[in-house]
């Protein structure tokens, strides 16, 4: 394994660990000593080669797919990013509140958090769509079709949802 590849792999391992709020010693404690802090640290620094078997076990410990740890892969293994989900806020304002009230409040909250008040469009993330689907008690793909029907989302949003369903 090249040292550059090992460093990139280590950076991904460190990113996953820190996203989960774990220190190196926290990994050792959570794994009840199965993963020694010094060993995980050496993997993260690229000082020590990790076997495929150990990498798979570490991915399982972190609860992530192995491919998320491999350098040169994009999150989710996508070759190209899915299309952006862009809400048309001007059209949303014309959808009756009894239908779009939760979406309008959610969009207003995102605008407030971002300080983004252009009032024309608002980009939302896949996680936002999943949250809205829970609020509307629908699957993301069904909600996407409804939002396209309201004219609030562009038809390209279907590809983003299909990408998620893969």
Automatic annotation (TrEMBL):
Family annotation (InterPro entries): BldD-like_C_sf, BldD_C, Cro/C1-type_HTH, Lambda_DNA-bd_dom_sf
Gene Ontology biological process terms, A to Z: negative regulation of DNA-templated transcription
An example Gene Ontology molecular-function term: DNA binding
PROSITE patterns xrefs: HTH_CROC1
Annotated HTH cro/C1-type domain residues: 13-69
Record's protein name: Transcriptional regulator with XRE-family HTH domain
Organism classification: Bacteria, Bacillati, Actinomycetota, Actinomycetes, Kitasatosporales
């Amino acid at each position: 394994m090249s040292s550059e590849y090992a460093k990139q792999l280590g950076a991904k391992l460190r990113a996953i660990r820190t996203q989960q709020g774990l220190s190196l010693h926290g990994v050792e404690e959570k794994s009840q000593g199965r993963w020694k802090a010094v060993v995980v640290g050496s993997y993260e620094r690229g000082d020590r080669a990790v076997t495929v078997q150990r990498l798979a076990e570490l991915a399982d410990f972190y609860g992530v797919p192995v491919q998320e740890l491999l350098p040169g892969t994009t999150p989710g293994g996508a070759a190209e990013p899915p299309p952006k989900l862009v809400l048309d806020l001007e059209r949303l304002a014309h959808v009756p509140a009894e239908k779009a009230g939760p979406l309008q409040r959610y969009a207003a909250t995102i605008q407030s958090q971002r300080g983004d008040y252009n009032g024309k469009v608002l980009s939302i993330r896949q996680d936002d769509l999943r949250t809205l689907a829970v609020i509307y008690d629908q699957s993301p793909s069904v909600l996407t079709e409804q939002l396209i029907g309201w004219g609030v989302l562009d038809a390209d949003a279907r590809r983003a949802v299909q990408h998620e369903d893969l």
